[in-house]
Design a protein that fits this description.
The chain has three domains: 114 residues, 2-Layer Sandwich (Alpha-Beta Plaits); 94 residues, Chitinase A, domain 3; 231 residues, Orthogonal Bundle (Trigger factor, domain 2). It is α+β, with helices and mostly antiparallel strands and 486 residues long.
Length: 486
């Protein structure tokens, strides 16, 4: 087996013809015959006992060719990868098979996508607007209030129900007078105002007192489970008991109880500093992403479709893993969102192409900057990754090629070159749209891959998502991997 010709085509592709000599091809046909013979019936022979020549005479000389070619494919693709001396991306595709006359073997044409020729404009001294990283006192107040809530004392109360109370309820839902699955519970503790139930349910419990019963008329949301969506529903509810939260006073004693600080002001200062660091990290991420947008504008490269398709697959896979972290099946999620897997994947195309172009730009910068890595740096990166993913170092090295680790590090160094040389635009023309864009970009930098407001299950309560412990692990600013969360 050998490469007979290799011709570069347009759109960063090449066509390679691999010759399979007669002996190799005949050997593959022999293997195909052995594999298939027990499924072939020939008059005068027991099944599986008819000689190959007899079978070929009866069913045609090409009867075993498809299976023979399938058996040859791994070797064909390997020789293309190892001996073509091309920088191949994506998976090679078989575009043509030409089986010669007896004794002459075959020629297999393979089409491959190539790493494109890349040129890039100026990448140092780029300018972009950076959101403010200030922390208003209202956010500190909100954090303190949240901590007070977590440390509140829970007591029973006989007063009418109000927002923030915990109502212990028995309820049952009826559609057209018939109970439905998931619409009944007893002794359920519902925090009023938490929006745990469908819209309107909690509001209609306000003012109830322990022991009171009510019938609540509502309509299921249109994005609810298909058999209930948009239908009127009646809930029979009994309030068993009502609990209220008694919050601790926000004073020095409170600070001592919940922190290592002696005064409330010291505690608030610590909260303020932690919020500032988080806000600064988010602002840095937004600034870097805006620089990457400008960087891509100066990129000149004919990106092969195979690279985009591969990134789309990676984005879908990453999204599925994030869904799994919330305890959701991708198929169920897509069904609830009323979108097909094919359409969902296609929706990833624009962001995936952008991710690929960012990666190409950063790899080109790494080349221009002659970024090199020491063995120690690569080993440190392996160690950090092993800790991050809770894997044994040896097993991680088996699953992650050193060239991938090296590329990742070089890309990050290249991104740092862009950021370190960038200029913050301190005088943008202020508009309401700019403020909205900053707010949205900061929100995007903070959010998880999956929106917490997910489709409701076929029950009155919304599912409680599990905490996505890995939501921040993959965030590598300026890298193409970020876009799958968009």
């Amino acid at each position: 087996m050998n490469i007979k010709s290799c011709e570069k085509k347009e759109k960063s592709s090449a066509e390679i013809i691999v010759g399979v000599d007669a002996e190799e091809f005949d050997s593959a046909i022999g293997k195909a015959y052995i594999k298939m013979r027990n499924q072939i019936s020939v008059p005068g022979f027991r099944k599986g006992k008819a000689p190959r020549k007899i079978v070929e005479k009866m069913y045609g000389a090409t009867v075993f060719h498809p299976d023979a070619l399938e058996a040859l494919m791994p070797a064909v693709l390997k020789i293309v990868a190892d001996e073509s001396e091309l920088d191949i991306v994506g998976r090679p595709q078989i575009s043509d098979v030409d089986v010669k006359d007896a004794g002459e073997g075959a020629e297999i044409t393979v089409t491959v996508a190539l790493y494109p020729e890349v040129t890039i404009g100026e990448y140092k001294g780029l300018t972009a607007v950076k959101p403010e990283a200030e922390v208003p006192e209202s956010e500190v107040d909100g954090e303190v209030e949240a901590i007070r809530l977590r440390n509140a004392r829970i007591d029973k109360t006989d007063r009418p129900a109000a927002d923030g109370d915990i109502a212990v309820i028995d309820y049952e839902g009826f559609v057209d007078g018939v109970p439905f699955d998931g619409g009944k519970d007893e002794g359920y503790e519902l925090e009023l105002g938490s929006k745990t139930f469908i819209p309107g349910f909690e509001d209609k419990l306000l003012g109830m007192v322990a022991g009171e019963e009510r019938e609540i008329d509502l309509v299921f949301p249109e994005n609810y489970a298909e058999h209930l969506a948009g239908k009127p529903v009646v809930f029979k509810v009994k309030l068993g008991e009502l609990k209220e939260r008694i919050l601790p006073e926000a004073d020095d004693e409170f600070a001592k109880d919940v922190s290592e600080f002696d005064t409330l002001e010291e505690y608030r200062s610590d909260i303020r500093e932690k919020l500032r660091k988080t806000r600064q990290a988010d602002a840095d991420a937004v600034f870097e992403n805006r620089l990457m947008d400008k960087l891509v504008e100066s990129l000149d490269a004919e990106v092969p479709e195979a690279m985009i398709e591969e990134q789309m697959d990676n984005s879908v896979e990453t999204f599925a893993k994030r869904l799994a972290a919330y305890g959701m099946e991708p198929a169920a999620y897509l069904k609830a969102m009323k979108i097909s897997p094919a359409d969902f994947r296609e929706n990833m195309r624009e962001s995936s192409e952008k991710q690929v172009r960012i990666m190409l730009a950063l790899e080109k910068i790494a080349e221009l900057e002659a970024i090199e890595l020491s063995e120690e740096e690569i080993e440190n990166e392996y160690n950090e990754a092993a800790k991050r993913y809770n894997m044994e170092l040896d097993k991680l090295k088996e699953s992650v090629d050193e060239k991938d680790i090296t590329r990742d590090l070089k890309v990050r160094r290249a991104a740092q070159v862009v950021v370190d040389s960038a200029v913050i635009d301190d005088n943008p023309e202020p508009t309401g749209e700019d403020a909205q864009e900053d707010a949205q970009d900061l929100q995007d930098a903070q959010r998880d891959a999956v929106d917490a407001d997910k489709p409701k299950k076929a029950a009155v309560r919304k599912p409680k998502p599990k905490k996505d412990a890995d939501a921040q692990d993959g965030e590598q600013t300026a890298q193409a991997e970020k876009g799958d969360e968009e």
